[in-house]
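Subject: complex prediction, re-run

Hi both,

The earlier run crashed halfway through, so I resubmitted it with identical inputs.
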Amino acid sequence: MIPVIETQRLVLRGPEPEDYPDFKATFSSYRSRFMGGPLNKYEAWMLYAAEIGHWNIRGYGMWMIHDRDSDKTLGMAGGWSPAGWPERELAWIIWPGEAGKGYALEATHAARDFFYTQQGWDGAVSYIDPKNLDSIRLAERLGAKKDHEAATIDGNDAVYRHPSPARLRDGQLADGIALEINHYCDPLFKPKGFPVD
Amino acid sequence: MTPMIPIIQTKDLILRGYLESDFDAVAAFCKSPRSKFVGGPHDRWTCWRAFLAGVGHWTLRGFGMWIVEHRETGRVAGRVGMILNDGWQEPELGWHMYDGFEGRGYAHQSVKAARDYAARHQGLDRVISYIHAQNVRSVRLAHRLGAAFERDVTLLGHPCQIYRHPSALPTQISNGVTT
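This time it finished cleanly. Structure:
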């Protein structure tokens, strides 16, 4: 029912019951501070169930990101659109122990491409806490630009507008993203001690 | 894109899955003081989360709460069904009745239908209901449904009471006839 997306290193599948402990671990932690967390177990459960319900009600939603080889979960990425939000959002979260490997870039790039080519989206935004520098950096690497005019959710978030389907098809931007993903797949240097939270 | 949520028809009501158009009714309840015994009132985002989670629960557990539609008007009268959220000791038979649909036997009708269904098709019999001690109307409904007070507990850090329902499975009678 929920489409499966495969990329070089990842498989994106719908959130499944057995993935809940991994989701709960991250959303109970400081890592989730820019996503409304940390959450207690009841809130984490309700949010996880809501991630699944979002697919049913909207026809799109957040995928669980799996490592292609080991199948372990790495985080989530996809579309998100609560009632009353100004625009459809592209969102992502990577488990703290898996950050710094380009998974969010690879997964979100693939999810955005799916929405643009399979579901007819003509654009998307990401609502990002101005203190969430890692996510702002990722939005920019995905070609999104800060939109000062766009409506925010509650005034505490910055709106990053993603490039249109036409601009992504145009080449240079998509080539740059592909190049960066390729580098993550086959890095020249393998830094140790990456993520900090 | 709806999980397999069965439809149950009763005299005045239809228990069914979720439509986006149900959200306003769910949110109206969730934002109002009527929800004070089920964790509310909540802001709009939390109502939305609860609405979506109502759908997702079916995927996670294979059972959940139905939307109760009032046949005559087509309006959403409430939600009833089985709940097993993280932190729950066992599956709970829960009910939310919306403004304007109380006092007409609809809660009894829909909860009984849900309880019967859970016992026959979901392997959930002699289930509990968590009820706040001051929620007089729900306590009364529990009694009318044949449930009995079992013990005081805390749920999500709040004191509440467990009521235990009787078996909702058809009883075997000595001559082999099933009722």
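Chain B has a mean pLDDT of 94.

- K.
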